[in-house]
Every structure is written in structure tokens, then in C-alpha cells.
Design goal:
heterodimer; A: 104 residues; mainly alpha; Helix Hairpins; B: 201 residues; globular
């Protein structure tokens, strides 16, 4: 209980993943869904850094992959917020259920 | 005289990295793996991880989008503290700079620009809430069962953390191609975001 191992971090990553998944499933606000995506990406990052610390002696694969995930998350958030603001300009709402023009 | 000063400055500038590169790797690693261990690590971990988990659950249960953003702020800050605890100092720093300082501010701008009042709510149906909660609880129990039963075939305990210099060297040698691709991607994203934000289309 008092020695922190890899499992502790992985369980925290699972908590983050499930919280992000729940957020993505229940929120209708487009930016709320984006916040859920950020939580899921952070859960992946926690796992990557923990594996790097506990399983990869002398290698940096996990940390460098986590750095790339952070870069990708920043890029994704920039584009997604731009799309949300365009959605708001066109539909006057960010409710994703209202954006159904492309439905066949 | 100033020319000599300039020359001395350049010599110092270029000899600095060269001298640093000759330090043996073991000593460099020993200097930088300054993460706590033992009971101190346990107490810090439970404190920070508890905060992070509470903030993540706060994100998914709060109905107000502004409150969600504030809970996300707490969750991301706690995760950056976790990186410091895992001896990933550079990642903790860029988590604070890029995520908390950049991405989160962007999200909050998005919230402010897309809600007429800050108290905007989109209520999901009860059946949706129940279904999502069931799916997430099932997934978490499955993950929990797998995680507590798995024995990882690594070295016992934590391995020493690597130096930031090694991270930089790795980015410019082994991981040069992904590094360049990430740069191109960031440029594409900048162009795309500028196009999306253009007024007259």
C-alpha cells in the first residue's frame, strides 16, 4: 500500500479514461465533448509516462511519445475550437444534435 | 577590447554545451532523477492522484460548461504534478505551459465565445445518463480487474529518470522524423485555423 508501483498510475489512467468517456457520451455541447477528449488524451499520457518510468530503463520512448501527444492535443484543440466557433456563427448554438445538415 | 569580449562570449557559449556533453551519463542521470521515494512518494502520490481523480470526476458530473473547464484546469495541473513525481520534469513543465497555459485558455475562450450567457446548459436524457454510466462502470471494472492481476515483467521498482538533455538528444536523433512531421502538422494547423477564422468566405 505504501510503495507506489506501476499499477497505481495505471488505475489513475483508467479513472481519467472513464471520466473522459462519460463526458463525451453525455455532453451535447461541442466544447464539452472536446474537454472529454482532453481527459482521454491525458489518461494515455499518464500511462505512457508511468510505463517509461517503471518499465523502460534508460530509454525515453514513453516520454517522447507523451510529448508528441501533447503537441497533437494542442493542434486538435486549436482546430476544434475554430470549428465550434464557426458552428456557433452558422447555427447560433454549439449543440451537436443540431448540426445535422450532413445527415443522409 | 569589445572584440575580445565578444570572442570570449562566443567561446564560452560554444564550449558550454561541449563541456556538458562530456559528463558521464550515469552522473547526469543521478543529478536529474530527483523524484521522492518511499513513504514521502506514497503520501504525495495519494494526495495528487486523489486531487486528479476528483477533478476528472468533477468534469464529468458538472452540468455547467464553465465549471467543467475549471475542473479540467485542476485535473491538468494535478497531472503535471504527477509527471514531476514520475521524474519526468520536462513533461511536467510542458504540460503546464502547453496544456494549462495554451490549450485550456483556448477552450475557455471557446466557451466564452459560444455561450450567450455563461450558464448555458444542455441537459441529456436520463436514459442516456444511465446508459453512459453503465458503460463506463463496466469498462472501469474490467480495466481494474486486468490491472490488479497483471504482473509486469520489468525491473523491480522505479528506474532512474533520464536527463532533459537525453530527451533533447533523442528528439534530434532517433525521433527526428516524427519531430519534423509534428512541425509540419503544426504549420498545417496554423494555416487551417487561420482559414477557419477568416471573416469573408
Amino acid at each position: 500500500m505504501m510503495t507506489i508501483g506501476l499499477t497505481h498510475y495505471l488505475v489513475l489512467g483508467a479513472v481519467f479514461f472513464c471520466a473522459g468517456l462519460f463526458t463525451m457520451m453525455t455532453k451535447r455541447n461541442a466544447i464539452g465533448i472536446l474537454i472529454g477528449v482532453e481527459l482521454v488524451l491525458n489518461s494515455a499520457n499518464i500511462n505512457l509516462v508511468a510505463f517509461d518510468r517503471y518499465l523502460g530503463p534508460g530509454r525515453l520512448d514513453g516520454q517522447i511519445t507523451a510529448a508528441f501527444v501533447i503537441v497533437l492535443a494542442a493542434a486538435e484543440a486549436a482546430l476544434a475550437v475554430g470549428i465550434c466557433i464557426n458552428l456557433y456563427k452558422n447555427l447560433a448554438t454549439v449543440d451537436v444534435d443540431m448540426a445535422a445538415q450532413l445527415r443522409g | 577590447m569589445s572584440r575580445f569580449g565578444l570572442a570570449a562570449f562566443w567561446v564560452c557559449l560554444f564550449s558550454g554545451p561541449g563541456l556538458a556533453a562530456e559528463v558521464p551519463a550515469a552522473e547526469r542521470i543521478g543529478v536529474t532523477s530527483a523524484a521522492p521515494s518511499g513513504p514521502v512518494e506514497a503520501v504525495l502520490f495519494y494526495l495528487v492522484a486523489g486531487t486528479a481523480a476528483a477533478a476528472a470526476i468533477g468534469v464529468c458530473v458538472s452540468k455547467n460548461i464553465v465549471r467543467m473547464a475549471v475542473w479540467l484546469f485542476a485535473a491538468l495541473g494535478a497531472v503535471s504534478l504527477l509527471y514531476f513525481l514520475l521524474a519526468a520534469n520536462f513533461l511536467g513543465a510542458i504540460q503546464l505551459i502547453v496544456y494549462v497555459g495554451g490549450t485550456l485558455v483556448l477552450l475557455i475562450f471557446g466557451v466564452m465565445l459560444t455561450s450567450k450567457s455563461p450558464w448555458v446548459r444542455f441537459e441529456p436524457k436520463v436514459i442516456e445518463l444511465v446508459g453512459a454510466a453503465l458503460v463506463c462502470a463496466a469498462l472501469f471494472s474490467a480495466l481494474w480487474l486486468v490491472l490488479v492481476r497483471t504482473r509486469w515483467s520489468g525491473p523491480e521498482g522505479a528506474v532512474p529518470g533520464a536527463a532533459v538533455a537525453d530527451l533533447g538528444r533523442g528528439l534530434l536523433t532517433t525521433y527526428l522524423v516524427p519531430f519534423e512531421v509534428a512541425g509540419v502538422l503544426l504549420m498545417i494547423v496554423m494555416v487551417g485555423a487561420a482559414h477557419l477564422a477568416r471573416q469573408d468566405r
